[in-house]
Every structure is written in C-alpha cells, then in structure tokens.
Amino acid sequence: MPLKHAILGLLNYADMTGYDIDRYFKSSIAFFWYAQTSQIYKELNTLMKHHWVDSQVVYQSDKPNKKVFHITEEGKVELHHWLADADLTEIMKYKNPLLMKIFFSSEIDVDQTMRLLEKYIRECSDIIDAMNDDINKIPEFEKAIQKDNESFYWGMTMTYGFMYYQNEIKWANWCIDKLKEKIG
Length: 184
Known about the structure:
This protein has helices at 2-13, 18-29, 37-49, 73-84, 97-103, 110-135, 138-145, 150-183, and strands at 16-17, 53-58, 66-71. By secondary structure, it is mainly α. Helix 6 (110-135) packs antiparallel against helix 8.
C-alpha cells in the first residue's frame, strides 16, 4: 500500500510529527496520492506495530507536548525493498470515476455532460496552479531536510503532474468540441 511507503519516505528525510507529515503530504504528494489526516495517523500506528517507525514524546512547557516519529532501520529496509520492487501489477490497474460518468452520459442531457467536463477543466487548472505554488517551495523543503539531490526526483513527479493535468484539460476540451458537434 503506497500510503505507508509515502510516510516512510517522508520520515526517511527527517523526523516529523503527524502534523508535519500531513502538511508535507498536502504540499508535495497530494497531486498523485491523496490521504486524509485520519488515514495518516492510522497508518502511523500500523507502521509502529511493524517496527518500521518509532516515536518519542517531546515535552514543551509553552505548547502541548508533541509526538515525533522517525523511521527505524527496519523501516528503511522496507522502504528500499518497496522502491526496488519492479512488480507493476497493482500500478497498471486503473479506475477513473469521471470516465465511468462519461461512459454512461447518454442517460443525461448533453449540456449536463458539458458542464461536468467544464468543471473538470477548472479543477485541473486549479491543481496546476497549486502545483506551481508547490514547485516554488521545493528549495525550502530540500534545505529543511538537508539533502540536495531530492529535487531531481521531485521534479520528475511534478513534471508528470503538469503533463497529466494538461493532457486531461486537452482531452476534456476535445470531448466538449465533440459534444458541440453532436448537438449541431
């Protein structure tokens, strides 16, 4: 399950609280792997049961105490094993609720389908805008984790995201054009 490996990957960069993990998730991974805050905390508990993650409570006098998580040696082994695994079976399974809706759209008015696609275009554009904001944060994050080679790989995922959403917009516009031709 990629969520646990995403958390291990983040903790491999630096020790973090659950809040930190959630924040970094939302600003770096969310465009290709969404997780709710509750899922992250649930997964942290599972990772601790596997001894892949450990934690310590940091006592603070002026703020509430915080629980800081760190990856264990066993966790690093698991992360490296997962990263090196070349089995793509699960990756190649594709589910897309939008395509399911379009597939059955003959049951609704063409205008409704066009509005759905127009909304999809706006949401894809919003994601691209958010990614543009996030790409500017890469140097800051890289400095915080004190590693200088990570942005090369982060750039690959960001480029995938940009190309993916740009292609989705192109496809949705093509569909709208086809629907306009259909109605005449």
